[in-house]
Specification:
Layout: E1 2-3, E2 16-22, E3 31-37, H1 55-68, E4 71-77, H2 79-85, H3 87-100, E5 108-112, E6 123-126, H4 134-157, H5 163-166, H6 172-181, H7 192-199
Parallel strand pairs: 2-5, 5-6
Antiparallel strand pairs: 1-6, 2-3, 3-4
Helix pairs in contact: 1-4, 2-3
Length: 205
């Protein structure tokens, strides 16, 4: 899928941004997207899909990405936006926000997956792009590190669900906690397990 729209006046010729998001599947917390413009003069070795890296390796690469790239931007969609828009549209919104946070803006955008957000520059979706395009892999790594750290902090604010361990994904332990405690304010109420817990009348405030 490619979106052909007029270039934003701030777009810089020749710059290509890679974009990926993390957090579509969890029952709680935001979707986090990152956009990265790599610097060809400062290559980063070992970029690949964040899911195939250890936490320590992701952390080390994220630091390199922050230090060596020409630009990186972060976008997010909160649980309330996910419930209102649906998870796909919220993910596209987070990606759009990440791209528009870049300075300078890119001339072209490559997005992991099969759908592109609406952007003021050409955008191309690349299936399995996080394993094929270094800039997308960098975006995947940065988004994963940012979201994982945030879920650790949210675990402190909303104890009992094990968010620091499973990062909001529907593990057996998380589903059992939902049965016991009901949803917290950061749970996605449009997701079926959360909705079922709400229907049983237990909601944690």
């Amino acid at each position: 899928m490619q979106i052909e729209l007029p270039l934003n006046d701030g777009a810089t010729e020749g710059l290509i941004a890679g974009v990926d998001e993390v957090g579509r599947g969890p029952l709680a917390g935001p979707v986090i997207a990152c956009a990265v413009i790599l610097d060809p003069e400062r290559p980063i070795d070992g970029l690949r899909d964040s899911k195939r890296l250890s936490p320590a390796r992701r952390e080390a690469l994220a630091q390199c990405i922050r230090e060596r790239t020409l630009a990186h931007g972060v976008g997010r969609a909160e649980p309330g936006e996910i419930d209102r828009l649906n998870i796909l549209q919220a993910s596209l919104l987070a990606m759009r926000r990440a791209v528009l946070a870049l300075r300078p803006l890119p001339e072209r955008v490559l997005v992991d997956g099969n759908r592109c957000p609406e952007l003021p520059m050409p955008c191309e979706a690349v299936v399995k792009g996080d394993d094929r395009i270094p800039a997308i892999a960098a975006a995947s790594i940065l988004a994963k590190v940012i979201r994982d750290k945030e879920m650790v902090e949210l675990d402190r604010r909303h104890p009992g669900y094990g968010l620091a361990g499973h990062k909001g994904y529907p593990t057996a332990a998380h589903l059992a906690a939902l049965e016991r405690l009901g949803p917290s304010p950061i749970h996605r109420r449009s997701f079926a397990p959360v909705r079922r817990a709400m229907e049983r009348g237990v909601v944690k405030t």
